[in-house]
Amino acid sequence: MRASNLSVPEVVREIITRNRSIYDCMKMDVINYTALAVKIQTEVERQLGNSVNLNTIVVAIKRYADSFSEKDEIKADSVLKNARLSLTDGIMDIKFSTNDMDKKDTASLLDKFELYDSDYEFFRMADSTFRVLTEDLSEIRRMFESFPSAKNFFSTGLAKIEIRIPQEKNRSDVVSYVAEILHSNGIELQNAFFSQDNIILVLREEDASKAYEVLRAEISR
């Protein structure tokens, strides 16, 4: 079970990485940083759970944009060097908040997860929402049936790729680099989560095998 604590630069990178059109415009240096900051400010604040100064977001965007030119000078294998990959398909993404259930129910659910899938990934977000990546099992689905909004909890047909990286590597740099590689191969990320020593990529199940092979080839170069 792993928790997620993000900074403003990490949230900004994650938002941009998930949005292909914004990412491509930044890569080509044809985007207005202030206008982009205004556009994503609400989402940044939602993920962090507090207000964020617009100039702070602009600075984070500028630094991310600068990193593209820096990475152009780095050999590809230096970014994913010594990384390890694992692929798991048949994954379900469960999202719920404190409005959907109380703390007692949440604690009880997490205890039950251990009975069915001890390898689940748990992320507590700053906006009081929870994300769980777990095996798509009927037993886990039934755990949520008693909650009125249960039908809105699930995203199915997914797979996850876990990238274990050396501690000295910058997680955000790895995510942006990986996203660029996958973009160029016609594969879009559904989501990405950071933990202390790894990165979890969430993809559509039909894209997972290709994505795994593409990344493994990069590591092997």
Explained architecture:
The chain has helices at residues 8-18, 20-27, 33-48, 54-71, 76-80, 103-116, 138-143, 171-184, 205-220; strands spanning 84-97, 121-124, 129-135, 154-164, 191-194, 198-204. The protein has nine helices and six strands. The model has no long low-confidence stretch (mean pLDDT 80). With 221 residues, the chain is of the alpha+beta class.
Descriptors for this entry?
single chain; 221 residues; 6-stranded antiparallel β-sheet; 9 helices; 6 strands; 49% helix; globular
Describe the structure concisely for a colleague.
The protein is α+β, with helices and mostly antiparallel strands and 221 residues long.
**What is the number of beta strands?**
6
Give, in order, the helices and strands: HHHHHEHEEHEHEEH
Helix content: 40-55%
Determine the mean pLDDT. 80
- N- to C-terminal distance: 32 Å
Measured by DSSP, the beta-strand proportion falls in 15-25%
Shape: globular
Low-confidence stretches: none
Biggest β-sheet: strands ordered side by side in the sheet:
2-3-1-4-6-5
Q: Largest sheet, if any?
A: 6 strands, antiparallel
Structural class: alpha+beta
C-alpha Rg (nearest Å): 18 Å
Count of discrete alpha- or pi-helical segments spanning 4 or more residues: 9
Chain-wise SSE layout:
Layout: H1 8-18, H2 20-27, H3 33-48, H4 54-71, H5 76-80, E1 84-97, H6 103-116, E2 121-124, E3 129-135, H7 138-143, E4 154-164, H8 171-184, E5 191-194, E6 198-204, H9 205-220
Helix pairs in contact: 1-3, 1-4, 1-8, 3-4
